[in-house]
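Lecture 7, part 2: worked example. A protein chain together with D-malate.
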Amino acid sequence: MNRQIVNGTYISYQDQGRGLPVVLLHGYPLDSRLWQYQLADLSSDFRVIAPDLRGFGQSVGGGEFSMESQADDVHALANALELGKFVLAGLSMGGYITLAYCRKYPSTLRGVGLIDTRAEGDTSEGKKNRDKAIELVGQKGSKGIADQMLPKLLAPETINHRPQLATAVRQMCEQCSPQTIATALAAMRDRVDQTEFLPSLTEPTLIIVGDQDAITPPAIADSMHKAIPNSQLVVIRGAGHLAPLEQPQQVNRALRSFLGNNL
Ligand code: MLT
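Predicted complex, written out as structure tokens:
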């Protein structure tokens, strides 16, 4: 793991391979280990960088953040690493941050990946659920959130037949600090709805979704695909919300094809 001071905090990141830089942003309440199979595979042909976002994994937290401020951190990290133009892809919350980044820093991008994510903001019911989850983490800590999230993060067959993977995801959730979880929940609750922005996203865009994604189902990915002019959609078979971990071969094939043919 590497470390870099970014906007006044230490950001940890994995950085493997050489070539076109591809930056991968994890979801909530996870960290860069989400991308372990993409780092291992794609780094033979690309420079793959997977940061732990501020407050997550081994990065230092403290203080508030928003999808926009996380995007500012990604921009500062990319500058510090002298990436030049790069491809930015994010899963779920990482996708919210990717869309915030696309709005702020489009000239730095070669391409975009939106994985198991959505452009809409939270509904009023969704916002109430965020507030309940903030209460839950206050009362039961990260374990309470892990209990709540696990069945939604993974496809039922992953949970039933791949206990080691389910345990690894549970550990990631439990290792995320309660403070970061509460801050992330508030930041996601208050995030900007990006649906109106989608037609102006002109970079080549790859949308990936697990066919059993319970949090951001395929219909949501399809509506992003219809709204983003230069986009393609790949549905991953046998995956829930964490397609890169659940079906890495299919996800890597989709990413390789996108990176090799479209950019
Ligand atoms: C994530 O996977 O990043 C979160 O589930 C996204 C969300 O709760 O909106």
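The longest strand covers residues 9-16. The chain has ten helices and eight strands. Keep this in mind for problem set question 3.
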